[in-house]
Amino acid sequence: MNIMVVRNDKLGDFITALPTFYVLKHHDPSNRLIALVAPLNRSLAEACEFIDEVIVDQSEDILGLAFRIKEARVDVSITLFSNTRVALAQWIARIPLRIAPATKIAQMFYNRRIKQRRSRVEMAEYEYNLELTKALFPEISLDFPKPLLRFEGSEEAYKNFCDAYGIRKPVVAFHPGFGGSSDANWTLSEYCELAALAEADESIDVVMTFGPDEEKLYAEAKSLLGERRIILYRSQGSVVDFAKILSHLTLFVSTSTGTYHLASAVGCETFTFFADSLFASSARWKSIGERQHHFMIPSDAAGRSAMFEKVKEALKNRL
Hints:
Layout: E1 2-6, H1 11-15, H2 18-27, E2 32-37, H3 42-47, E3 53-56, H4 62-71, E4 76-79, H5 84-92, E5 97-101, E6 112-114, H6 125-131, H7 154-165, E7 171-175, H8 188-199, E8 205-210, H9 215-225, E9 230-234, H10 239-246, E10 251-255, H11 258-265, E11 270-275, H12 282-285, E12 292-297, H13 301-318
Parallel strand pairs: 1-2, 1-4, 2-3, 4-5, 5-6, 7-8, 7-10, 8-9, 10-11, 11-12
């Protein structure tokens, strides 16, 4: 059976879909799993052994997308997050069975609509995604390994990273970037304060990481940190290249954005910051790995200050 799973949005959202691909493939290895993804997630999707084919949504017109879907000879689609364009393209492609949550106008183009009411946050996003597989295989096991992602060549990639930056100790990394659907974060100055706290521990090396489009943030951090024993690293290469490095870190500290989900998926322990609201909470957006430590940042100044002190204490205890 050719099964297309649709999650064509941001990095973190796509990672919440990976257990869905895994359980469908594990349920019956003869299933051919097709991923419809955004361009930024192409390399990650292609590196997953439980995904057989990748269709990249280039945001072309509906007919163009429908044609490429039809070429894949899809028997069943499971759309984890829908919009009208993607729904209509699947309808035009005449996929026999089209499964999706019963939300928004787009639901009219699916022929098996599942009521989930995700706004209630009765489970995490990845768990809602997994639940949709039961519409196809009621008896399916939703279990998946943790960590879910393992990549060949990660040891060599990490060695090259360490050699390039003179790293000889376990690494605690801080990622101050603010992206994806994250609704709360510390300031760069506050991240520098946390990094300086970790730097005081002589048994570890401290790294601050930046995405390829965060040159300004990198420059600001370099100015704030001065001559401290903190390594500034701008990620190079693909998402998979960065994942290989993340898989060997001792701790990854960041807001609840795509890099957090990536770190958790490859087995790295995380300290992660969420907005103090149900929609943006860890209850909804916890990742698919283990060893996650979640902190909700209040919106008021006093609550925020008190939480920052709790984070510093937790970090001291972890180190």
